[in-house]
Amino acid sequence: MCRLLLVLLLILPLPEAGAQTSEERGYAIALEMQRRDAGWRDMRAQMEMVLRNRQGDESHRLLRTLTLEVEGDGDKGLTIFDTPPDVRGTAFLSFTHPTKADDQWLYLPALKRVKRIASATKSGPFMGSEFAYEDLSSNEVEKYRYKWLHDATLAGRPVHVLERYPVYEHSGYRRQVVWIDTAMLRPVRVEFFDRKNAPLKTLTYHEYRLYLDSYWRADRMEMSNHQTGKSTELIWRDYEFQTGLSERDFDKSTLKRVH
Predict the structure, then answer these.
(1) Residue 196: CB atoms within 10 Å
(2) pTM of this prediction?
(3) What is the rounded distance in angstroms from the CA atom of residue 59 to the CA atom of residue 53?
(4) Alpha carbon separation from 92 to 55, 58, 82, 183 (Å, rounded)
(5) Architecture of 21-257 per CATH?
């Protein structure tokens, strides 16, 4: 895309649906979402992961997350498990890329080794949760093709409803339907369809808060698997931004030393 056209897409308000094709409007909305969430530099947070089986039995894990915004590339993320004892010290490192396969590694303290997550297995479950490895990447615009479906109302709030199709050839998803709050331009619901185009999972975002007068973050996210009856809830706490993280904090060699 030429630079002038990109600048115009970023600075002009979103056109009415009739002024564009559904694909162009979907892309413009996704691009504006990314633009509004740029500039936070780095983030730390605490997280509780709640795993629920079909019967409703729960298990809980406590984690720490660090994220670095990378200019010209996708985000870098580090997730460290603190409890329970059987997963303490497990660490997950992810380098998101817009147009090529993400780089991901998992450190397993019981084996004392770093395991690289192969491209063909990124649709698999992350640490027994209903989140796949590919769900843990930042959503760079270039990772999908888009189509605006319609505008609607969800829980009393106006939303854009987009369909997006993963460009990544090993994705576990045929498509995703994303419900986006029109005021804050953040997702409130994502419906995932498997490779056979059957409903697979639904991710819902709850209790958004605004940080630094610019950046919306959800306090709670829940991924429900319609095929297994299981779900995973992520409860976020203590968001901190611009804490001075750098590339050194996301070096693969540090995975074995996190504590």
Answers:
(1) 7
(2) 0.90
(3) 9
(4) 29, 22, 12, 33
(5) Clam (2.50)
Residue 24 has which token pair? 């162009």
- Name the E strands within the chain: 42-52, 58-68, 76-83, 91-95, 103-108, 113-116, 144-154, 157-166, 173-181, 187-194, 199-211, 215-225, 231-241
- 30 by Cβ neighbours in 10 Å (0-12 / 13-18 / 19+) ranks as buried
Asked if 243 contacts 42 with a C-beta cutoff of 8 angstroms, the reply is: yes
pLDDT single digits (tens) 191-241:
999 999 999 999 999 999 999 999 999 999 999 999 999 999 999 999 999
Each domain of the chain, given as residue ranges in start order, spans 21-257
What confidence tens digit (pLDDT) does each residue in 26-85 have?
999 999 999 999 999 999 999 999 999 999 999 999 999 999 999 989 999 999 999 999
Neighbour count for residue 49 (Cβ, 10 Å) = 21
d(CA 255, CA 253): 6
Query: DSSP state, 125?
Result: B
Is residue 90 within 8 A of residue 127, CB to CB? The reply is: yes
Taking the C-alpha atoms of residue 219 and residue 92, their distance in angstroms, rounded to an integer, is 21
Residue 145 falls in which region: left (phi positive, over 0), alpha (psi -120 to 50) or beta: beta
DSSP string for residues in 81-110:
EEESTTTTT-EEEEE--SSSPPEEEEEETT
